[in-house]
Design brief:
By secondary structure, this protein is of the alpha/beta class. The chain has 2 domains: 151 residues, VC0802-like; 99 residues, 3-Layer(aba) Sandwich (Rossmann fold). Helices cover 29% and strands 20% of the residues. It has 9 helices and 11 strands. A hairpin with a 2-residue loop joins strand 6 and strand 7. Helix 1 crosses helix 6 and helix 3 crosses helix 5. The longest helix is centred in the middle third of the chain and has 19 residues. The protein is elongated. The chain starts with a strand and ends with a strand. The relative contact order is 0.15.
């Protein structure tokens, strides 16, 4: 099966680096996405573990036409009766645009029409459409060259980590992890964030340095409901937490005392409270003697 690993702009190389760290080869590193050809078990493992991706799409139709009627007919040729589980609510999410399909809502409707036509053609009952809280999300990506249709293996964005953070203009977790991968931060050296805020960048950087997977819960993801993955023990595929050979120590500072408590809570949520120290202190009042000896890393989003 072919996967499209979606990433924030500029982070494709970070995704490729993380994928290769998991001993999986990338077939393409392109604009906004990385592609992987793999089996269902590895697809599940990547969805459960990757920190740098925003979505994992199983591509079931590539090189499709990007005009209205032709796209509907092409979608209707795909085996949706084998792809979509019975009784589970589904919806279509559209991104991109083509010369003739410029509105995402209308483009999503074009694909939905093709899926309905397929179920009618094979004499099967179509699963219910649920636009509010779909359990299954069909993904449409449009471009000037054509269209791609797939299934979102999570049916949601993968960047949240469940930390319940609340901050002014917080950095997204997948972006923070991507920056750490691009910097090739390794274990064994101290990591300092002098403007740590709510702690997202420091937490993700420490997690990347220590090789910690995202550890998503399989039953909360759409792949646990897809027929293609029904014979897999998804919980067993969740990667184990590695035992680091070296100790990485993270230090976070911020002049705003209101965010310090939240930063500590997030680091505890990540399981990093024993390798990180958070202090309320303005950067111009830091005593260099109180910092760990270098060399090390400075990461910050001031």
């Amino acid at each position: 099966m072919q996967l499209r690993l979606c990433a924030a702009s500029g982070l494709q190389q970070a995704v490729a680096r993380e994928v290769e760290r998991m001993s999986v080869d990338c077939t393409e590193v392109g604009h906004g996405a990385v592609r992987v050809e793999t089996d269902a078990a590895t697809a599940a493992r990547l969805t459960l573990a990757l920190r740098t991706v925003s979505r994992v799409i199983w591509e079931v139709g590539v090189g499709l036409p990007n005009t209205r009627h032709e796209l509907t007919r092409a979608v209707a040729q795909l085996g949706w009766e084998k792809l979509l589980p019975a009784g589970r609510g589904w919806a279509v999410r559209a991104s991109g645009r083509s010369p003739t399909l410029t509105h995402s809502g209308f483009a999503a409707q074009v694909v939905a029409d093709g899926i309905r036509e397929r179920f009618a053609a094979v004499g099967r009952q179509q699963p219910p459409v649920d636009l509010e809280r779909p359990e299954i999300l069909v993904d449409l990506h449009l471009a000037a060259q054509g269209a791609e249709v797939g299934l979102d293996l999570a049916a949601r964005s993968l960047h949240p980590r469940g930390s319940g953070r609340r901050a002014i203009a917080p950095l997204r977790e997948d972006v923070a992890a991507g920056l750490a991968h691009l910097a090739e931060i390794d274990a064994g050296s101290p990591i300092i964030d002098p403007f740590c805020g709510s702690g997202t960048l420091l937490a993700e950087t420490l997690a990347v340095a220590l090789g910690l997977p995202a550890r998503r819960v399989a039953r909360t993801l759409a792949l646990s409901r897809l027929p293609r993955f029904s014979d897999l023990n998804l919980e067993a595929l969740s990667p184990p937490t590695p035992v680091p050979g070296e100790t990485t120590v993270g230090w976070g500072f911020d002049a705003d005392t209101r965010v310090i408590t939240q930063a500590r809570r997030i680091l505890t949520h990540y399981g990093l409270d024993e390798v990180a120290r958070i202090r309320a202190c303005a950067v111009d009042r830091l005593d260099p003697a109180s910092l760990p000896p270098g060399p090390g890393w400075i990461v910050t989003n001031p």
